[in-house]
Amino acid sequence: MICSVLKNTVAIRPVRTLTFRSLSSVVAPDINDLEQEQIKQANEAYHGIVEISVSGDRGWGVFASRDLVKGERLIKITPFSFTDTPNQHSIQIDWKKHMNVDIPARFVNHCCNEANVGIKIRDEAADFYALRDIESGDELLWDYETTEYRVSENFPCNCGSSRCRGTIRGYYAHGNQVMKAYGPDFIAPYLLKKTPLK
């Protein structure tokens, strides 16, 4: 069961995740009033498509509210600012350009090689698309290394995938695996260029 906490109401609903993990200890992560309101607004905006809810022991996640079809655009990502350095809530769109994203995009969790959503970058924005059919209740999972040349800080991965890379470093470390898993359509275009700008 997943617990969805929104503005003083708690809804319990069953959720199947693609993380291959047990949801034995579900605890809603601490959030402030602003984040709580942003979650409520995002859930209203994407009602009937996706829903933000608690994702086991890894915080918040984004889940399919209905069956989703391969190729369907799911989340429109509009940045609220840009930076030349990565952070926990940014998506890299060029060698020295990262867009800071808001909810729900920043709550899409990572999965190595078996993600069910991918990002297509367009101008200075991006969209999440279904990489395959996704059943209602499944968690949307994205491979961070499809856009990040080098993550802001390496971190151990606990995605649970049988093909987990162990540590998330960035495309520079696992580019061949990432390309094999997703092909060029869901790799950030700047990563397909030969070398990073100095």
TrEMBL record:
It holds the Pfam family SET. Residues 153-169 form the Post-SET domain. GO terms for molecular function: methyltransferase activity. GO terms for biological process: methylation. PROSITE patterns: POST_SET (PS50868), SET (PS50280). Residues 48-145 form the SET domain. Keywords: Methyltransferase, S-adenosyl-L-methionine, Transferase. This is SET domain-containing protein.
